[in-house]
Sequence to fold (700 residues):
Amino acid sequence: MDFFHVLVVLLESTIRVSVPLIFAALAGLFTERAGIFDIGLEGKMLGAAFAAGAVAAVTQSVWMGLLAAILISIALSLVHGYASITQRGNQIVSGVAINFIVAGSTVILGEAWFRQGGRTPALGEGARFQTITFPYADSIREIPILGPIYSDLLSGHFILTYVAFAMVPISWWILYRTRFGLRLRAVGENPGAVDTAGISVIWMRYRAVICCGILCGFAGAYLSLAMTAGFVKGMTAGKGYIALAALIFAKWRPFNIMLACLLFGFLDALAIRLQGNPLPLIGQVPVQLMQALPYILTVILLAGFIGKAIPPKAGGVPYVKER
Amino acid sequence: MSTPYAKLPGWAEYGLIPLVNLAVAFLVAGLVVLLVGENPLEAAYHLINGAFGRGEYLGFTLYYATTFIFTGLAVAVAFHAGLFNIGGEGQAYVGGIGVALACLWLDQTMPWFVVFPLAILGSAFFGAAWAFLPGWLQAKRGSHIVITTIMFNFIASSLMVYLLTRVLKPLGSMSPQTRTFAEGGQLPKLDWLLAIFGLDIGTAPFNVSFLLALVAAFCVWLLIWRTKLGYEMRTMGHSPSAARYAGMSESRITVITMMISGALAGMMALNPIMGEQGRMQLDFVQGAGFVGIAVALMGRSHPAGIIPAAVLFGMLYQGGAEISFEMPSISRDMIVIIQGLVILFAGALENMFRPAIARLFAMQSRRSAVVAQTKGA
Fold:
């Protein structure tokens, strides 16, 4: 029973830490499927988290915070889009640039506006997301097995958590069952063919980049409005890169992304749990190994030792219309 | 890839366009300063004064520049072969192991000029080793080098935390760092070099690894433009299919290029470890690997451009510290913004102003042609 209890706690924290990963990885899915590499996920998420924290603190409204997060994230996406679609610049360079600009400016602006060492003020009740408790969650907690699963694992999360998991099938539906999705994927595989069909590659890619911005906005808002009450400098702490790893690990497919994010989230939760507790059979596992595991797994996958990850064919290549 | 832009004279291509891009980056940074409610001109004054105003300041500027020359060269070498080595950060971090091992082994018995060459070899070896795997994976297994090097940055960071907290830390010490090296593990300062110009180095850690950086820059120039390997690298960078058609082994060039790049990044570790701290600490790289990207882009991947670009960033790091001292609302994070803006404007948006400049040149040449014609008549 004790083991079961530990497992439920572990899975609950897994869900909590994987939500921003899911949002960000799905965001990356949209751009990369449209043929634009995006290592700026980290920066967009951080910028969105800052905008959410700052606006929610000023307006005392969580929804204004969310809106600001999405707008800022879209704006940053459009900068990336302008550089990599219109100016045909190097997409990786542009992503790196965005990460730096955001990392610096969130601290500078935060310090200038709020004077709390790069933080935004702690948010009160109405200015951040509250957990949602399902009906009867308290009364059926005592039922063995199913009780804790319902009351602790399924109930008691933020609304954004449910949105994140809902976005997985929605993204799948958009990408695989709509005309927009078909064209988006085609733009990432063979833009020339799409252009021949009379569809603007440029506009298609811009729309993909905007989708990415919206989802990164959710990821950032979750960090500063739900997971913690306010923005802390550098709070994404590499989550954007883990999301990127998850995206590749999932071979650019929506449902795999959810599983990859849950796996990486689980490793994260486990690493915290195992700190100082030796494992049976293996003995003490260094925390650092657990932290590095998502990256190591992604490298092994990329090397083709666990299946083969084939990126979208036109990824990273700016489209030049024949002249 | 065909360039859809008109060809410009060399001085415009390598001088004017980077300068215009840089100027725009600084203008945008100035806007951020305005947004914070401070005077950008005053900030610029503190920046330049803080970087060059005194011998000590200049020493710090050149100390930072040393670091950035190494990481900038590392990125540039990979650029020439069409590879984007974003893992300089991790390679420099792991390169620190080589420096630390050489110092811990010999610092008490040998003078610095015996330890230094060993530390150079050690740092280059460990840096190259850390770049070998991503290179090999790209060459043989087709995994994307950008993604693997990013992953290797994180793996390196975990590995180094592990090593510094468990293996390299002296017994009984609480802080995650090696013991402080004896005299043999510390590099002499270049105070005499500044003294020639009548400047006093003060406490600045400007040391002999600067000279090594200059030598490395020269060697990179030799390698890229004067050797067969360099020719192959540039060929592959311009057109992989041409390289393949000419019988060059793509995988060999990829792996060797990445190892050279990693070795250069690894040698960066000499500067902070042996030159300043006298021990290896957590996070001694402090983002220098990423600054290398900006430096290489600014310097157009040419050693002659990389050195001034590295000095520019050294100026930002040193002068930026001075700004934050004089103007408390502008912390050192301002440097990070400027760095990002330089990467954006000199890298991703490098072609933004090219059409306008090309049009200006076209107008100019047309006018002079007209003048020549009328004179002829």
